[in-house]
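LAB NOTEBOOK - FOLDING QUEUE
OPERATOR: T.R.
BATCH SIZE: 2
PURPOSE: Compare the predicted structure-token outputs for two unrelated chains run back to back under identical settings.
PRIORITY: normal
REVIEWER: second-year student, initials M.K.

ITEM 1
FIELD SEQUENCE / FIELD STRUCTURE:
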Amino acid sequence: MPIVIPDSEVTMTFVRASGPGGQNVNKVSTAVELRFDARQSRSLPADVRQRLLALAGSRATQDGVIIIMSRVHRTQEANRAEARARLDELVARAQVVPKIRRPSRPTFGSKVRRLTEKSQRASAKKLRGRADED
């Protein structure tokens, strides 16, 4: 079941963006800065919250606020949708519980085969030396 983050827990601010847009880029604030306080969020279970902050990496502040910037598109609406989609994708990735790796051990048969092959190799190498003068 996917976790849905309500809009009330997300704040978006708009700033001027660099990049394409011509004169429009100098006049309109199209870049979006999305802020989501993951540490205070009620919609996230504790384990998902922990994985989310780890996945966010440098996008998360010390206070547990995740900041996502989007300035790819020329319109506020498209950048808003892009930032929200990136947050949703990050939360979806945090929901996946990592598989615990249990180290495997070699079987008894494989140990025996390795040791017999090793002794055969050693005896073959021993025969390569100089012939003894008797």
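ITEM 2
FIELD SEQUENCE / FIELD STRUCTURE:
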Amino acid sequence: MNSNIAGKSFNPDLTKKKLASGDRPWVKFVLIGIAIAYLALILFIPAANVFAQAFKSGFGPFLTNLTQPVFLHAVKLTVIIALIVVPINTVFGLCAAWVIARNQFRGRTLLISILDVPFAVSPVVAGLMLVLLYGRNGWFGPLLEEVNIKIIFALPAMVIASAFITMPFVAREVIPVLEESGFDQEEAARTLGASDWQTFWRVTLPNIRWGLLYGVILTNARVMGEFGAVSVVSGNIGGKTQTLPLFVEEAYKQYQTESAFAAAVLLAGLALVTLVLKEILERKTQIKDIE
């Protein structure tokens, strides 16, 4: 009996082979089912409900909701903020990524941690910090009031809040690409007589273009969908300081559900376009890595 037990001792390799050979195929289907059910509850069903509510009265009323003056102003303001914030954070992200990826210096880790602060701080807290700095009773409030400059409850505060929230995206996407590409090609270009500007445009930028575009797309999507920080510093005044996400909330509170869901469909469309572009860029990056 003891010899039989010894002969049936535990063999890890044999166990792995049994699991790999699919002795329990139902486990895979159960896990897939759980994942699909979870995604359905938190993503698919709510998204389908948004579209159903937006088009429940037909396509005509949906288009009518998209032509309301308050809605059009919210779209215009959202686009203006994006046109200001995205270029600023693109330039900042490139500069920050270059400094971090191409240099080793004391405080580099601290700089990377500071760059990640917007990921750790709640957007509402970020908006409150701006109010405490630039509000009427804030640190710089009296000085700004003397020179008749309005920051809070105006476009400047909304731009600053959106810029703070989206600050890390470009830098975080470009840093790993720069570190992976190295600097041999850049040094070779300088050796051949290329200036720093020529080196950047003809060597560095082509190497980082997919990561850069990925960061820009994420930045733009986050700017257009930002709610928390902007809601604190904007005042949410319809037709004046109301962005598209704020319009959705206000319209829903005022029982204008069809208008709210129509605006939500527009934001969902933006998210869908972002996902498609993200997938395209990821495939481009994978192809480049293979080459």
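REVIEWER COMMENT (ITEM 2): Residues 2-50 form one domain.
FOLLOW-UP: none requested
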